[in-house]
Design goal:
The chain is mainly α and about 190 residues long. It is about 80% helix and about 0% strand.
Length: about 190
């Protein structure tokens, strides 16, 4: 705990970047035998890291190649008559659909560049769009595939996809109405 607090303190004062400090601490704990490699492998979800890392890499690629700008330009063309609020709703719905199929981190990583570029296209504050991505990525209620805990309960409880739809769809509708109403009030365009 003292070594963790030291790394955290060094990061706060800006002496060592947090990720690098924690990586050195982890290696040190493994070299001293405090933590076994098998324990690290068991606790560290390599598959999840691969999915999230791939999604972040894809998001950077979308920004770097201009694909995010092209997608947002197409959305701007389709949604231009609906204004920023219509685009805001579209980004939220797109992120919710992504998060039902892939992990929430991957959904946010894929939706963020499009949302940001779309906000810039409408020349409005991007914060409501960013919040739409954040809340949309946290809305995996309809399927068991978008969130790890949903998937764990799915198999352990012998649930069917129909059970998730029956319970999750009303919850998702209430959640969406609340989010789409309150975000523009708290974070205006």
């Amino acid at each position: 705990l003292a070594s963790f607090a030291t790394v955290l303190g060094l990061s706060i004062i800006g002496y060592v970047p947090l990720v690098k400090g924690l990586l050195v601490l982890l290696i040190g704990l493994m070299l001293t035998g405090t933590i076994k490699l098998s324990e690290v492998k068991r606790r560290f979800p390599i598959e999840l890291l691969a999915v999230v890392g791939s999604a972040i890499g894809l998001a950077k690629l979308m920004i770097g190649t201009g694909l995010a700008g092209q997608i947002s330009a197409a959305l701007f063309y389709v949604l231009g008559d609906f204004g920023p609020y219509g685009a805001f709703i579209a980004i939220f719905v797109m992120t919710v659909m992504f998060t039902e199929l892939i992990t929430n981190n991957a959904a946010a990583a894929l939706s963020f560049p499009v949302a940001y570029a779309l906000a810039m296209g409408f020349n409005v504050d991007p914060l409501p769009f960013i919040m739409a991505v954040a809340f949309g990525a946290s809305a995996s209620f309809i399927s068991p595939f978008g969130y790890q805990t949903n998937l764990m309960v799915y198999s352990a409880g012998n649930y069917r996809l129909k059970d998730y739809v029956l319970m999750g769809l009303p919850l998702s509708i209430i959640y969406s109405i609340t989010v789409l109403t309150l975000i523009p009030l708290v974070f205006p365009f």
